[in-house]
Amino acid sequence: MLRDDLVRILPTQRVLDEPIELAAHAPDASFYSLVPQAVVLPQSVEQVAALFRLSHERRIPLTFRAAGTSLSGQSITNGILVDISRGFDSIDILDGGRAVRVGPGMVGARVNRVLKAHARKIGPDPASIATARIGGILSNNSSGMCCGVEQNAYHTLRSLTFLLPSGTCIDTAARDADEQLRHREPALYRGLMALRARLLADAALAGRVREKYRRKNTTGYALNALLDFERPIDILSHVLIGAEGTLAFIAEAVLDTVPDLPVKHTGLLFFETIHAACAAIGPLRDVGAKALELMDRASLRSVQDKPGMPALLRELPPDAAGLLVEFQAECEAERDDLREAARGASARLRLLTAPAFTGDASEQAKLWQIRSGMFPSVGAVRARGTTVIIEDVAFPVEQLAVAAVDLTNLFARHGYSEGIIFGHARDGNLHFVITQGFADANAIDRYARFLDDMVELVVRRHDGALKAEHGTGRNMAPFVEAEWGPEALAIMRELKKLCDPQGLLNPGVIIPDGPRAHLQHLKALPAVADEVDRCIECGFCEPQCPSRELTLTPRQRIAVRRAGGEFAQHDYYVMDTCAACGMCATACPVGIDTGSLVKRLRHESHTPRQEARAVQVAGRIERTKRLARLGLRAARIAQAIFPTSRLAGIPRPAPKRPRTAGDGADALYFPSCVSRTMGPSAGNRPLPEVLIEVAARAGVQLHIPDDVEGTCCGVPFSSKGYTEAHAVAANAAIERLWRWSDGGRLPVVVDTSPCTYGLLHCEGALTPVNRERHGRLRILDVVAYAHDELLPNLAVRQKQASVVLHPVCSVVKMGLPGRLEGLARACSDRVVVPADAGCCGFAGDRGFLVPELTASATRREAQQVDGGHGGFYSSSRTCEVGMSRATGRDYRSIVYLLEEATRPAR
């Protein structure tokens, strides 16, 4: 069996071949899907070399996948899928940040976060950088908004370590790297030299290669490497950039970095026509604009009705177009120069409205929201069963306007009325988005005719590139010859044969399997649930998911539902290990919260008796809490007598809450059930006592209602799918908060962030009366309240030298990380938020019931936490328990830091 061979290479847990695991890994972000025979998770070059040998012995195709965000079908297979996302994530800063050595499994944005301390970043800046991994960025020669050609992966490559299918591994930084290649791979070495000579002898083709690579182009292999370099080792290393994993495995790379320009001057310019907008590209680029994002009228129309969009968008004439323009500089002293450049260039343009540039970060974010909302806006309204296809092409800038109009006409001719066009106009790079189903032959033929006409338009009419930055993949492989001609394709075929003689490495990608290969293995997106049917399986959600390295990610949970079969509702994979934290929605282009689906599935799994019991519990919270405190006390005793992993870290029960006076109160304090049930860690006073004390120190009187004990926000019931019980608890909470706050007169302070978030977003469970009350209540999280109301009235007397923060999911979703860090900065000299900080997976009780979820979710963050800090802080007791377990450090509420820093000298 294949599994037997694989487990001789890899640990058992790193070989995935259960039907649910194969279905989960079948799709990538493209509109293609293949079910692998097995998924493997190697961690070393030696393991990959062994997989190459097995592939050859068994004649089984082998394909590498990094993040699976590729849009052209580069990372799917019906052979062995080699997932490098759980390994190869090394990073080493070189030359004071001027270069970085990085493994292919490292997420691009993670690299940039590490480089930020040096005011540097990697050159490629794809829109998927928060998810895409270095292996995919290199293998697709990704670029992006500001990257252009000069700063792409090809041009910023310093060296790389590669492994050929033959088993030869070479670090091109070695002084004798070229000699190693000549000695160990003589046929490949001679072949590369011969191909270089062949291309140089063809003056017409060589000239065409040079010309086309002055612009963005990722169609086929990087033939420019045969002209740019003389040594075969340099040729090969650069051919591997953009080779989409079809020639070798990139095990490590050293990239030159580029300045991270923090000073920005941003504006949105409107023009009467797209011709006028394109005519402005040259003048704006010539005065230094780093970003020039073109948006046609259809793309602007697609976002104009979204919340927060400028009213002006709805008033634009039918043929208008926009340019989002951004100037960037290294230091604040250069801001006046940016303003002058923008002012001078704009004055010479014919604009529909006066130019309005801003240096304010929040206003800049709003402008970029217009641009970033276009792709999801189409995805959100597409018909069920269809997918969103986003393509990228490139034209000579001087032909961009005509080409954009031609594309619009092409949409109309083939019935894609929803099609929109936008893109990186500075580089002549246009993205277009259409929606397409593949349910029957007519739909497939329609797409085929459209694609044929698009190739004619891009290549024949405008001499453009069919792929500018997304890679050739499966969908453009049959058209490589149309763009490059037969001789260039012949050279590419020879490159493939030289590196991969058996043709088993990612077959069907770049080198076509046939003229209609792009119409095979098309992905079906059947409707399965209202909560997730808009998912296009882009994978942006995956880095946010706490179960991503344990069972499934949100994309994979949706994929197995779409695949059907008995495994689609596998409890452990689909429901038990989902934290239902909602963090996936924060990264999803169309805002999908897969946790909402899981909550419904949990609800549907309950028996009527279980639902009735939950309602009963929701109505008797005070009794439940008393039992919980008894349970904690018993668990602590059991832990002392019979230590077990599941009882480790069980908190002690909370003492009685402090009594407060209601007369003259400035705010209502609603301690969460967790704060009223779980006591603090050893050596700490109860959180309610500490918050009341620090508030009084700031001249603020907080009041805890006398009858607070029987009140719960309802979040525990919601997360478990007990819909009726959640409604009972939430309505009771809002009724009491309304009464306690004197009809909304007093603000309500909640000391546990998940509970704050639950109260803020419980409208759907409320009666009409309580919904109206809810809208008039001011419910404040303790992080925001302490930062905005308490800190300004307190004197910081003693600072911690260094503290570590864990921003919980609800803090992120409420937009409060900045205030959490602001509090910490006021009370300490150094604030550390681990680069891999994310959802801890504790999820109320998951950390007790499924402790392996929290262990997996916190592993990377915990590795970045050491003992050289004065304190560790968060804003949720259960998450603090989870992080304390993971790190062996005492995590506490941020309130403790504020109290200790402002404590009067004794």
Write the layout of secondary structure elements.
Elements: H1 2-7, E1 15-16, H2 19-25, E2 38-40, H3 45-58, E3 62-65, E4 80-83, E5 91-94, E6 99-102, H4 108-115, E7 120-122, H5 134-139, H6 153-156, E8 157-163, E9 169-171, H7 177-184, H8 186-201, H9 203-212, H10 224-228, H11 232-239, E10 249-259, E11 263-271, H12 274-279, H13 281-286, E12 291-295, H14 297-303, H15 312-315, E13 321-329, H16 335-347, E14 357-358, H17 361-372, H18 374-381, E15 387-394, H19 400-414, E16 420-424, E17 429-436, H20 441-461, H21 480-484, H22 486-499, H23 554-563, H24 571-576, H25 583-587, H26 594-605, H27 608-618, H28 621-641, E18 667-670, H29 673-677, H30 687-697, E19 702-703, H31 715-719, H32 723-740, E20 748-750, H33 753-760, H34 768-776, E21 779-781, H35 782-790, E22 803-805, H36 809-813, H37 817-827, E23 831-832, H38 846-849, H39 851-863, E24 871-874, H40 877-887, E25 891-893, H41 894-901
Outline:
With 906 residues, the chain is α/β, with parallel strands linked by helices. Helix content is 42%, strand content 13%. Among the domains are: 261-470, Vanillyl-alcohol Oxidase, Chain A, domain 3, CATH 3.40.462.40; 526-605, no CATH class; 618-787, no CATH class; 795-901.
